[in-house]
Design a protein that fits this description.
Layout: H1 4-15, H2 20-26, E1 47-48, E2 51-53, E3 65-68, E4 71-74, H3 86-89, E5 97-100, E6 106-112, E7 116-117, H4 121-132, E8 145-146, E9 151-152, E10 157-158, E11 160-164, E12 169-170, H5 172-177, H6 186-189, H7 199-203, H8 213-228, H9 232-242, H10 250-258, H11 268-277, H12 279-294, E13 331-333, E14 337-338, E15 342-347, H13 353-366, E16 381-385, H14 390-403, H15 408-411, E17 415-419, E18 428-431, E19 434-437, H16 439-451, E20 456-460, H17 473-490, E21 493-499, H18 519-523, E22 526-532, H19 535-541, E23 549-557, E24 569-577, H20 581-584, E25 596-602, H21 606-610, H22 614-624, H23 639-647, H24 655-670, E26 674-680, E27 686-692
Parallel strand pairs: 6-12, 15-21, 15-22, 16-17, 16-20, 20-21
Antiparallel strand pairs: 1-8, 2-3, 3-7, 4-6, 5-6, 5-11, 9-10, 13-14, 18-19, 22-23, 23-24, 24-25, 26-27
Helix pairs in contact: 8-9, 9-10, 11-12, 13-14, 19-24, 22-23, 23-24
Length: 699
């Protein structure tokens, strides 16, 4: 085992400081720079990289390597990479340190006369490859190597620093002088500046979904710099494009662009990327550029052939994290809304969805449990009703606040309300027969979400936020996933409210009832469905006007365990008179009453409070006597028969009595003390049975 003193000497020799916390912060590949082993630890796998990252640019998904402080070589070979032998490594000179990573494998560390800049790295490594006569194991500047301490859990041995002495110092400038002259870029051929007429138009064709700083900077930025000769107009296009990314930083973007003083790329790859991603858009942009450039006698670089374009895919090693240390999901409202993801509520017209959304928004901004859903804290909510005028949403908000005794101070500055009649929100449209995301709108939306620190944004209804064909799966998948990017970039939950198609009377709506293409609900992580109370249910519950009642069910729950299939959450629209008759008196003659507004409140079916009591539950369980009771109302062993006999419901064979019994079954299943399970009967046929899941004192 390496001594702590020797380890500190190693860090001092190669990185200029013996303090691990200083070294590892800027020499750990993201997201490892936040790991707890940023100190000497001999019991776990520990790594660092010779490439120094910019500390201010480090994120969980990427970072920019500014320079390389040392040269390690690995003698571990693979099927696709040549093995570097000790003899080959020493063709560079005497190493300054050797780290034994396993019984037969070592890392050889060489000191450098000065750090190798990121822009010099490719040329420097080409010289190294030529001298040693082998290709080392991945020459990327961000390549991870084992630290001179810790364990190799795969091989079951300690990682040791077995040599540390004054070795040869590699002359970086002398080695760079041996590199082949870089190919002259197209921008240099045209006097150092190839001014594109519309670089922003080119970048608009390329969605910024880049996950690595390496690709973002070393590829995209350098290629655009080459195409624009590093002009200010080129920077503006790059800065605008960069702002779409969740890790965008204006200062770092400016510094990165200004740090480039020459490139070895022509920029053709950027043109190919745009052409591949949006062929029609690229053709139109190219035509505009050609018209402008040919007038000046300047030719555009010819794009690479399609087979020359590189996909740039890499596999990411899994970063093991102890289960208790995994970041938990950030649930914002019950099990419906989660930060960074899309949830969807699907409802028929006139069922009360907009009133429900208003009540939930007030629960969220006040941080109170108004409708039975947990709210972790007072949230900031943006409610955008694209269907109703602003005044109608105001009526719902004020009536709901009155019903729940919510005051202005309880809401503070956390609620934002907009109407599609005053301010359109169209984030996707058809252009020349092709679905296109309206990037300026998305950008402005994300900026507003970040500016006001929005936790939840509600779009009601979803169909009004785009102008794409509803039945086109490809188009609908594109727009819903774009909303997913909004959730991720804005760090908020996105709640999309959608309509159902018309369903026959008595048929319960579900996720598949959503109007249009199925790709919409497929892309959402949670889908909640609203159904009106049917006349039959109203009769069973003794409700005079069933149209004032509805229930919700979570029909799709990818981020949590789904509730029992018969679980329902019931609500009622309760009338609230706004008392604004005096205000309205001048509008029309004879108006003496204020506006009546339906406010959503929780509602428990009467069968729950009267018949499905804890005492009755005990009676029924006792009567069931451990036998296998069925959920099928046609079966001889229907559990309803046990309920009827245990509770002495004499009219259980009548329509009303049977509906009461079904209400009791639904209640106990919904509360989780009973569960409907599939099993084989005595004839090996698959049937649904009632299984008791909770003790009676759980009810």
């Amino acid at each position: 085992m390496s001594s702590d003193n020797d380890i500190q000497k190693f860090l001092q020799v190669f990185f200029g400081s013996g303090d691990p916390s200083d070294i590892f912060f800027v020499n750990l590949k993201p997201p490892l720079h936040k790991r707890s082993w940023r100190k000497i630890n001999h019991n776990i796998d520990c790594y660092l990289t010779p490439g120094r990252f910019a500390p201010e640019a480090l994120t969980n998904t990427g970072g920019t390597v500014l320079e390389v402080a040392a040269l390690p070589l690995d003698d571990v070979g693979s099927a696709t990479v040549s093995k570097v032998t000790p003899e080959q490594a020493r063709r560079l000179g005497a190493e300054s340190a050797i780290i034994r990573t396993s019984k037969d494998n070592h890392h050889y560390w060489f000191k450098l006369s000065r750090p190798v800049l990121r822009t010099e790295w490719k040329a420097f490594r080409s010289v190294v490859d030529g001298i040693i006569g082998a290709k080392p194991d991945n020459p990327a500047p961000s390549m991870l190597f084992r630290a001179p301490f810790g364990r190799n859990s795969k091989r079951g041995n300690a990682v040791e620093l077995i040599k540390l002495k004054d070795g040869d110092v590699l002359d970086v400038d002398a080695m760079l002088a041996l590199a082949e002259p870089a190919a002259v870029s197209d921008s240099e051929q045209h006097g150092g500046t190839l001014q594109l007429n519309d670089p922003a138009g080119l970048m608009a064709l390329i969605p910024n979904t880049i996950e690595t700083r390496e690709e973002w900077g070393n590829e995209i930025c350098h290629q655009l710099w080459a195409l624009t000769g590093g002009s200010e107009e080129g920077f503006k296009a790059y800065d605008d494009w960069s702002s779409w990314h969740k890790s965008y930083d204006a200062d770092n973007t400016r510094k990165y662009w200004d740090s480039i003083h020459g490139v070895t790329t022509s920029g053709r790859e950027l043109l190919v990327r745009a052409q591949r991603l949006d062929p029609e858009g690229y053709a139109a942009w190219m035509a505009r550029e050609a018209a402008a450039m040919f007038d000046d006698g300047v030719e555009l670089p010819v794009p690479l052939a399609p087979d020359e374009a590189k996909a740039g895919l890499t596999f990411t090693p899994y970063d093991w994290t102890e289960m208790c240390d995994v970041e938990p999901r950030d649930w914002l409202y019950g099990d419906l809304l989660i930060r960074g993801f899309i949830s969807m509520t699907v409802a028929p017209g006139g069922a009360g969805k907009s009133s429900l959304i208003v009540a939930e928004a007030l629960a969220q901004v006040t941080g109170t449990n108004l409708l039975g859903a947990r709210v972790p804290k007072a949230l900031r909510v943006a409610l955008w009703n694209l269907e109703d005028p602003h005044i109608e949403t105001k009526r719902k908000i004020q009536a709901t606040a009155h019903r729940y005794k919510i005051r202005k101070a309880d809401i503070g500055d956390r609620l934002f309300v907009d109407s599609g009649r005053d301010q359109r929100l169209v984030v996707a449209e058809m252009r020349q027969g092709k679905p296109v995301i309206v990037r300026p709108v998305i950008k402005a939306l994300v900026e507003q979400i970040k500016l006001h620190k929005i936790d939840v944004i509600v779009i009601d209804p979803f169909v009004s936020c785009h102008e794409l064909p509803e039945n086109d799966n490809t188009a609908q998948d594109m727009i819903v996933k774009e909303w997913g990017r909004v959730a991720e970039l804005g760090g908020c939950a996105v709640h999309l409210i959608d309509h159902t198609r018309k369903t026959p009377p008595g048929i319960e709506a579900n996720t598949d009832s959503a109007r249009g293409a199925k790709a919409k609900t497929d892309a959402a992580r949670v889908v909640r469905v609203i159904n009106r109370m049917t006349d039959k249910e109203g009769e069973s519950f003794g409700v005079g006007n069933p149209r004032q009642h509805f229930y919700t069910l979570h029909d799709k729950a990818n981020m949590t365990m789904p509730p029992p299939k018969d679980h329902r959450e019931w609500f009622q629209l309760e009338n609230v008179n706004m008392g604004n008759a005096a205000v309205r008196a001048g509008v029309g003659a004879g108006i003496t009453t204020g506006d009546n507004v339906g406010v959503v409140v929780q509602w428990d079916p009467p069968a729950v409070t009267v018949l499905a009591s804890a005492e009755n539950y005990k009676k029924v369980v006792k009567f069931m006597d451990g036998k296998r009771w069925r959920s099928d109302g046609q079966a001889k062993m229907w559990v309803g028969n046990a309920i009827a006999k245990a509770l002495e419901i004499k009219c259980h064979t009548t329509k009303k009595g049977r509906e009461q019994i079904n209400g009791i079954i639904d209640t106990w299943v919904g509360q989780g003390v009973w569960q409907i399970v599939e099993d084989f009967d005595d004839h090996r046929m698959t049937r649904d049975f009632i299984e008791i899941k909770g003790e009676v004192n759980d009810f």
